[in-house]
Amino acid sequence: MAEQQVHMRVWRGDANGGEFKDYRIAVGEGQVVLDVIHAIQAQQAGDLAVRWNCKAGKCGSCSAEVNGKPRLMCMTRMNTFEPGETITVSPMRTFPIIRDLVTDVSYNYQKAKEIPAFKPKAKESDGTRRMYQEDIDRVQEFHKCIECFLCQNVCHVIRDHEDNKPAFSGPRFFVRLASLEMHPLDTNDRMELIKQKAGLGYCNITKCCTEVCPENIHITDNAIIPLKERVVDRFYDPIAKLMGLFSSKNK
Amino acid sequence: MAQEKYETHEYDVVVIGAGGAGLRAAVEASAHGVKTALVCKSLLGKAHTVMAEGGIAAAMGNVYPEDNWKVHFRDTMRGGKLLNNWRMAQIHAQEAPDRVLELEEWGALFDRTKEGLILQRDFGGHRYARLAHVGDRTGLEMIRTLQQHAVHKGIDVYMECNLQRLLTDGGKVSGAFGYWRESGKFIMFKCKAVVLATGGGGKAWKVTSNSWEYTGDGVTMAADAGADLMDMEFMQFHPTGMVWPPSVRGILVTEGVRGDGGTLKNTKNERFMFNYIPDFFKAETAETIEEAERWYDDKRNNRRTPDLLPRDEVARAINSEVKAGRGTPHGGVFLDIASRRPADYIRKRLPSMYHQFKELADVDITKEAMEVGPTCHYSMGGVRVDADSTATTVPGLFAAGEVAAGLHGANRLGGNSLSDLLVFGRRAGLYAAQYAKSMSGSLSVNNDQVEEFAHTMLAPFESKGNENPYSIHSDLQECMQDLVGIIRVESELNQALEIIQKLKQRSHNLKVEGNRHYNPGWHLALDLHSLLTFAEAATLAAIIRKESRGGHTRDDFPNTDAKFAKVNIITRISNGEMTQSQEPLPEMPDELKALLEEKK
């Protein structure tokens, strides 16, 4: 394949504002959007800000919106676009802009801190920890999360509602909470947090998060819905409530 | 001084780098009650450890009960062509199982055996299936577990903060100086101890599995502060990187593919590794395809397939096949698991390889062979450390993980890196905390030193030069790739040195555009100092070692040399000049020597 020129429109600016800038640049065989951004950096705009690390879909650093779609730039092949198509690259919209394609994702690190740590039960009598593969398959699916925060970015609860952020953890942390709740060894109780501070109730299951997950984690079906069911079982189940009246253990 | 000119923080221990080693060090230091900061170039959880695929080597004996630390020690030493620091190899093999089990206590979920224990997989150079793993994303599990554990331990994390220089006071470490990537503003740490956990310098090569972070920062900061470097000539070229399309050349293909049954083939469909079994490994390697095939299921009565020889051997073999014209048109060889294992098994065991090839190369690895070739991967050399304490030769400075030298000798076995991070990360945190506690009195930094650093770092903005940092980096990568690659020869190494000197000259005339606010061009300009220092040290050491051993192959000296079997090459910088010397290896106790000689 001969090298061909593409027309890229890349958002440039900072917290005070910015605009799309046009770049025409050669694209080599097999290249991904991140390669082209790097080529722009090296040849035309040395100060173009972008995050990246592994360039293989494993670290979740290079999240952006490509033609409006939340994507990892390192996993978006240039040959998926029509020849001659203008390709627009903009930063994730849900997070405050730092510069160009780099956003302030500290919201996510704050939410991570609020989740009580893993707390294992006692070891087996022989001093080992036995868990069976079929019992951890589901949690291992959640552990695939690379923290690209695309699910957070696309979640409409916070995408256009900054004011919801304090009371809503977002899909990434529902996955984290589900991974702890379903961990065969964990003993911490996080149901109150899930219901209240994490704001699970805000989610109305539109599955946008699942659609953008580059790891194909079934966020809605496997994490959010089971958590919602647990909340219902704990807090709204009439029989459990009745039982609670006769039991001192009603945590 | 009442008012500091730059943002300043005081700590007992500052850990630089937040991959496996840095996180584990910070957790340990903090657990010993010292005020600890963790400082990293990227966001937390994005360090190189996240890309590690295959697993953590630890002789837990869950799959083969006859495995134990002595066998692991032996494998590690032989894999490193006996140049390893024996004490580090001993500590590593002894402590790795506890470090893995500790991760489980912190929430990690490894793949399981039928009995519900941690499953272990085969890897190159390991006698028994030994790698605790999670599919082919073990590094992600490890970094996320450590990260989440650290977050709850009250450790202060400084993300996207790039420390570039160590501050010293009377020969002792007293702090570190760098900048925030976001604002470009300077930041200074005053502290009693620094743990370097910054990884390697593989970004000095063109075809590399390493990310932008791998610029040799730790090695350079340590050497600039007067610390000894060791074994800088030993770079590991991982045998299996992607080769096609060009944009993904160098991206890692886990050794787990071979561990789980994949084999290497040339374009004549020959399993060529049987032609490359060195005498050193003859006794433990299968000579026929039949024996190799039996080995997967019966390790007691058969010897290991040569597909799983140590990485240096396999990388050289692939290189030779391609040179002999038996490589693919894209300059690689075939790695075939599709014809050998069921599709479901491949997708379950190697999900990220499946995904990576499908998305980036349009190859379905359950249906067709992968094309692979060597890629620059790991630096065995680095900062010289005390085996037990990870202390460098500069008081108050500790180093763990890839930035430190010694454990892996001339060549690292796959799986021994993640265990290295845990074992020596913990020790670095422990001994740095102890050292910090033993220090009393106020911290002082040399303001002239700080001003000089600040001035140098801002020079690219004020420069009248016109050198583009991206061009200098790219020229360095070409130079190291072509002249200091897998196969080396003295004339080319000398040529590389000349080029590096010219690049150093050019780097005095760097010019960056824009301002200090999240400016990658400026960041790269600042990293060039480390990249060039790393490259120079590696090249000089490669010239001195006139033999072939492990990750250092000299075309003009193709054999091992008994003289060089007894020495490490030490690099120092004094008054801006790099000097090198040969120093004898520490003497190994007889009982450990006996382990090496045992046949089984």
CATH topology heading of the largest domain in chain B = FAD/NAD(P)-binding domain
The portion of residues forming beta strands of chain A comes to: 15-25%
What is the quaternary state of this protein?
heterodimer
Rg of Cα set of chain B: 23 Å
Mean pLDDT of chain A: 94
CATH architecture of the largest domain in chain B: 3-Layer(bba) Sandwich
Short description:
The complex is a heterodimer of chains A (251) and B (600). Chain A is of the alpha+beta class and 251 residues long.
Please, could you describe this protein's structure?
The complex is a heterodimer of chains A (251) and B (600). Chain A is of the alpha+beta class. Chain A has ten helices and seven strands. Chain A has two domains: 4-103, Beta-grasp domain (Ubiquitin-like (UB roll), Roll); 106-246, Fumarate Reductase Iron-sulfur Protein, Chain B, domain 2 (Orthogonal Bundle). Chain A has helices spanning 33-43, 106-113, 133-143, 150-154, 156-159, 171-181, 191-195, 208-212, 219-236, 238-246, and strands at residues 4-14, 17-27, 63-66, 69-72, 87-90, 97-99, 102-103. In chain A, strand 3 (63-66) and strand 4 (69-72) form a beta hairpin. The mean pLDDT of chain A is 94. By secondary structure, chain B is of the alpha/beta class. Chain B folds into three domains: 7-236 and 377-438, FAD/NAD(P)-binding domain, CATH 3.50.50; 240-376, Flavocytochrome C3, Chain A, domain 1; 447-584, Fumarate reductase/succinate dehydrogenase flavoprotein-like, C-terminal domain (Methane Monooxygenase Hydroxylase, Chain G, domain 1). Chain B contains 17 helices and 20 strands. In chain B, helix 1 (20-31) links the parallel strand 1 (7-16) and strand 2. Chain B is globular and about 70 Å long. The interface between A and B is large, with 58 and 63 residues.
